[in-house]
Amino acid sequence: MSMDDRLKRLKFQSWHRGTREADYMIGCYFDRFHHEWGEAELAWFEALLVEEDVDILGWALGTLSVPPELDGPLMERMKLLDYVEIPR
């Protein structure tokens, strides 16, 4: 799969989670940061996307413990939530 196709797939998966809250949190995170990512960060994000929305939201909000394989700088960045832009 080409990098362009991979990014398109990740963008779609980020913005079509099933709940509006998850769409905004995960979609905005992808939109804001994916330009800075290399292979390791993209692989982390792909692993994140297979998780349940309720878990991802809990990890980002700090109400659930982050599993070791997803913990680290990218999750810490996600926890800041300053990238979420909700249209009015």
Helix and strand layout, with pairings?
Blueprint: H1 3-15, H2 20-33, H3 39-49, H4 53-61, H5 73-80
Helix pairs in contact: 1-2
Q: What labels would you give this structure?
A:
0% strand; globular; mainly alpha; 88 residues; DNA polymerase, domain 1
When the domains are counted, the total is: 1
Structural class category: mainly alpha
Summarize the main sheet: none
Shape: globular
What would you give as the CATH superfamily?
A: Flavinator of succinate dehydrogenase
The appropriate CATH architecture is: Orthogonal Bundle
- Taken as a percent bin, the fraction of beta residues is under 5%
Rg on CA atoms, Å: 12 Å
Low-confidence stretches: none
User: Share of helix among residues?
Assistant: 55-70%
Tally of helical runs: 5
- Could you tell me the number of beta strands? 0
- CA(first)-CA(last) distance: 36 Å
Q: So what's the CATH class?
A: Mainly Alpha
Mean pLDDT: 96
CATH topology annotation: DNA polymerase, domain 1
N-to-C SSE string, H for helix and E for strand: HHHHH
Please characterize this protein's 3D structure:
It is a single chain. The chain has five helices and no strands. The protein is mainly alpha-helical and 88 residues long. The protein has one domain: DNA polymerase, domain 1 (Orthogonal Bundle), CATH 1.10.150.
